[in-house]
Amino acid sequence: MMRSVQAQECYDVARTWFAIIPPLLCPVSFLIDAPFGRFAPTERSILLFDGIKSWMVMELVSPITFVYTYLHSPLSPIYYGSAPPLSLSHPPTLLSTLYLFHYLNRAVVSPLRTPSRSKSHIIVSLSAVFFNIVNGSLMGAYLSSPAAQSFLGDAFTRPLFWLGVGMWVAGFAGNILHDEVLLNIRRSAKAKGKARAAADSDDNNNGKNKNKQEHYAIPHGYLYSYISYPNYFCEWLEWLGFALAAAPLPSFASAGQFLSTISPPYIFFLSEVLLMLPRAYKGHRWYHSRFPDYPPERKAIIPFLL
């Protein structure tokens, strides 16, 4: 019992700070470009790493910490040190499976199918590892906790649970669909780069410089007709649905009550919004500055609004 009490104290501290930090970082992110992707530094540096490998390493941290924490149930006096029921008929385990499916695609399938990715600065990888350790641990601890077991006890009979699961499925599918549009752009650019390299073999340096920027083009189709970052929008839909299915809404009566009642699924969703919104806004502006013919009617991340 004492160990679960100590774990609860650590959980509450981590949960509170994890809810506080993203709102503080959001305005800073509008001023500073995270050095990866289209904002990756172009000069050589020992602090820059292969984009695909670093992505896989930092994203695998989340499912690993999640599985470890979920299987050890640190907040449960009953299951402490052991797993809750591992059956899809057990709502927390079903939601855990959705979480792991997301990261199977994000950390393994998607990067392995990516023909190229810009180098990533070590600060990005370290920040992501920290985020994923905390988030994976909090999510695993919550879903295996008595609070989640109680809230989700009758989940299969509640329409909101299935609405949330449906939103997760739609967001997950939309994320993959729109990522595929970007992957096709990179595949096409890589093929063109190889053809150009063969034709201009006497101009190796110039060929390399062109190839670094060649995988950026205007994406078209699906929600790209309305927004620049439909993959971000779909990920927000995915994790909002997950939160609706997994946890009760926090109290908005006061800041103190909000922090004391917000659970990891909602913290994760809010973190995604607050940390991805600045990058979507700046990336949207980058598209307009890079491509004079970029569709002026497109919004950044929310159709018709933002």
**Oligomeric state of the chains present here:** single chain
Query: Strand arrangement, largest sheet?
Result: 1-2
Mean pLDDT: 88
Shape: globular
Strand segment tally: 2
Keywords: Membrane, Transmembrane, Transmembrane helix
Transmembrane segments: 122-143, 155-177
GO biological process, one term: lipid metabolic process
GO molecular function, one term: oxidoreductase activity, acting on the CH-CH group of donors
Give a description of the structure.
This protein has one domain (2-290). With 306 residues, it is mainly alpha-helical. Helix 1 (2-29) runs parallel beside helix 10 (264-290), helix 6 (159-199) packs antiparallel against helix 7 (204-213) and helix 8 packs antiparallel against helix 10 (264-290). The radius of gyration is 21 Å and the shape is globular. Mean pLDDT is 88; it is low at 206-214. The chain starts with a helix and ends in a 16-residue tail after the last helix. It contains ten helices and two strands, in the order H-E-H-H-E-H-H-H-H-H-H-H.
